[in-house]
Amino acid sequence: MSIDDRLNELEIRLPAASNPAANYTNCVQTGNLPFVSGKGPVPQEGAPPKGKLGGEFLTEDGYAFARLTALDILAAVKLELGGLDRVRRVVKLQGFVNATPDFEEHPKVLNGASDLMVEAFGDRGVHARSVLGATSLRAGLPIVIEAIFEVE
Amino acid sequence: MSIDDRLNELEIRLPAASNPAANYTNCVQTGNLPFVSGKGPVPQEGAPPKGKLGGEFLTEDGYAFARLTALDILAAVKLELGGLDRVRRVVKLQGFVNATPDFEEHPKVLNGASDLMVEAFGDRGVHARSVLGATSLRAGLPIVIEAIFEVE
Amino acid sequence: MSIDDRLNELEIRLPAASNPAANYTNCVQTGNLPFVSGKGPVPQEGAPPKGKLGGEFLTEDGYAFARLTALDILAAVKLELGGLDRVRRVVKLQGFVNATPDFEEHPKVLNGASDLMVEAFGDRGVHARSVLGATSLRAGLPIVIEAIFEVE
User: pTM for the full model?
Assistant: First the structure.
């Protein structure tokens, strides 16, 4: 089954890939490794969320934001590659969680993106990752995630 | 001399590799580059440390935590590769130090990991790296480090 | 036109590459990918800047610091490669902005480095990137940037 079919079956709809926030590009491929720029949660409609985990947002909010962010990452990769079926592996995710100094549940937040990758790609979606609490992020976003993929 | 023999000679004992904190894996190899997930200091016994550099912990505490973290990274690589002798180079470390806003000695903290890599691998252990102050980390850990290696 | 000639034409002068701040090296190349360690703004004379975006420094100060940092990154790559003409692509920049919890203009700060890369390398200078607010950085620097290049 193609990844696109799988996403359809799971009723996961990719948004149009968001534009880079400044003078750079969404994705640069070197060899067979596409490096994806830091992306944030882009809602289907309305303004992007603004606030901190441990402050305005609960861990389950963060999980949902991380999942939204992963959709934007996949949209960027799909646009770059012309489709997702050439993805051989999700290599790495790095998550920046806009957090208060006493927040401790960063992994549960990033799971929103990790779970989406495994839903979409199965075993090929299991990745290395790291996550940290940022003191602030662009436009007050609650999360930014960057990614490295391996393609055929 | 094998790396394992060298570690024995230096009386450096690797722990059992810690499990990933969530839905991901310790290490993903693409081409000849294993990417290691962010790991933290895992003590031989007792609970992991909790607190900030510039707060509860002194720079020399952080150095020791970074060294402990490097041991967990090597344990993860050893488990993945079946041994450390195939390591051709430590390519990069990235350190996240759980720190107060006025902490300035992040490099001295990460040296605990860098020194261990050079002890273990000699010239092949000299790496690129970067380090930053995180406002918070998972479970209140004082440091998390991720790594990229090159293998034969 | 060679990159060196282009930099001359643009009156962009590279500093002498700064030394690593601790027990590591400026640049490790694996395959055709040089990974450059986190570098900071090194002024031609006087002490390095110290302070936070959103605090002591304005966004336009940060832009200038990011540009200075990019010069130090290029100096490190030039020293490693023996020249910049072998650079085929700027693959990725990752910026750590020493920022207050309410700062929101991280992309405008990192643009100082991104714009310099595009000035120097043209289309080959367009890169993937991410940026986050760090709660503190070494020696109180306002910004640290690490980079990945692709060479011939």
Answer: 0.96
